[in-house]
């Protein structure tokens, strides 16, 4: 165990040393940056010691709010810059909140979200992963929404992560605790009038998402299940056998069902060791073990740097690829001989599962192998 603790500090050292996300509210930033409006459901409880309204404690009641985030103009795609504690915030370079509304009742949340749903009535629900505090998860969705120019309503589920590199066991338990909250949020989005809901989950948030989809299936909630029009799991920290059991219980998986993986994901390598395994779903080496499931694996190994645990959100090339995910469904609905043009990379199909090994050169050039 001592050896694993050393690995924790090696892999998460940069995260621990780098500035953590913090919420700074500056309404004037709206005149400088581009404002992304987020609708948030959270089961984080207030921290009585720090006064943080959305701390790492667990709340049995889901609270709902609207958060407006200014995305600064002076940045690269995939980049999030946090305001420094040593000086005033810089709207030209820092992600800043421009306004926040905490709703007194879920009905108020639904009414506001209903007004902001686009004509196609689509919503993206983002579920953050391990070691995230409240602003980090929310601002990540604002970054993705801005960089991908997403036209759907942006919805975030903020579950009670400890937001500490050594809080892995706490976060795994919190992910189980948070299942009802995510299901409740999905019901609120449905009740607001969303016809299509795409769930994007990162890391341990993928385990939470799969558990929630499983309990929706067990409840035979066909109305909500039919509204979930796609699932994207990014670097999923999920046991492969557990994923299969969850998928079997869910039945027909939402389509498209996309899993971003990387064989160089050091965070998942550590998670596998802590779990007494060789790999997790997010760094799976052989998709053949899941070949009967109708899922698409996008192998991002060639893009992995550092811990390689969120290269999708950090890489401009992968951000561009994510923006083309709707092409997956359209391409695979046609003739198999026409599959090679929709995404850059080599394609391997094993029964129902498909793996696409992405290439940085072709991704940047927009070509194919």
From TrEMBL:
Give the matching PROSITE patterns.
PROKAR_LIPOPROTEIN (PS51257)
PANTHER family, A to Z: ABC TRANSMEMBRANE TYPE-1 DOMAIN-CONTAINING PROTEIN, TRANSMEMBRANE PROTEIN
The record's section on InterPro entries has: AB_hydrolase_fold, DUF900_hydrolase, UCP033909
The molecule here is called Esterase/lipase superfamily enzyme
């Amino acid at each position: 165990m001592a050896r694993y603790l050393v690995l924790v500090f090696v892999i998460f050292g940069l995260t621990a040393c780098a500035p953590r996300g913090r919420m700074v509210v500056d309404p004037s930033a709206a005149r400088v940056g581009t404002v992304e409006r987020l609708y948030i459901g959270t089961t984080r409880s207030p921290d009585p010691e720090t006064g943080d309204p959305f701390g790492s404690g667990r709340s049995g009641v889901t609270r709902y709010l609207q958060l407006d985030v200014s995305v600064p103009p002076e940045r690269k795609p995939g980049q999030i810059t946090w305001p420094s504690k040593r000086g005033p915030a810089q709207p030209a370079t820092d992600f800043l909140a421009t306004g926040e509304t905490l709703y007194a009742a879920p009905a108020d949340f639904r009414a506001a979200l209903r007004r902001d749903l686009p004509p196609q009535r689509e919503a993206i629900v983002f579920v953050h992963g391990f070691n995230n505090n409240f602003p980090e998860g929310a601002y990540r969705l604002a970054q993705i929404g801005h960089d991908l120019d997403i036209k759907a309503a942006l919805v975030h589920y903020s579950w009670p992560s400890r937001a500490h590199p050594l809080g892995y066991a706490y976060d795994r338990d919190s992910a189980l605790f948070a299942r009802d909250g995510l299901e409740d949020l999905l019901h609120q989005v449905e009740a607001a009038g969303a016809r299509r809901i795409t769930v994007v989950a990162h890391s341990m948030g993928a385990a939470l998402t799969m558990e929630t989809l499983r309990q929706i299936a067990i409840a035979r909630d066909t109305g909500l299940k039919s509204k979930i029009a796609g699932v994207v799991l990014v670097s999923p920290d999920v046991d492969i056998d557990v994923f299969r059991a969850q998928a079997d219980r869910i039945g027909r998986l939402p389509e498209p069902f996309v899993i971003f993986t990387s064989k160089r994901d050091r965070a998942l390598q550590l998670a596998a060791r802590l779990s007494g395994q060789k790999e997790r779903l997010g760094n799976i080496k052989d998709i053949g073990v899941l070949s009967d499931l109708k899922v698409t694996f996008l192998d991002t190994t060639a893009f992995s740097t550092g811990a390689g645990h969120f290269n999708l959100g950090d890489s401009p090339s992968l951000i561009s690829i994510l923006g083309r995910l709707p092409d997956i469904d359209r391409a695979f609905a046609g003739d198999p001989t026409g599959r090679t043009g929709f995404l850059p990379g080599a394609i391997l199909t094993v029964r129902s599962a498909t793996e696409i090994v992405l290439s940085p050169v072709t991704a940047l050039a927009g070509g194919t192998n």
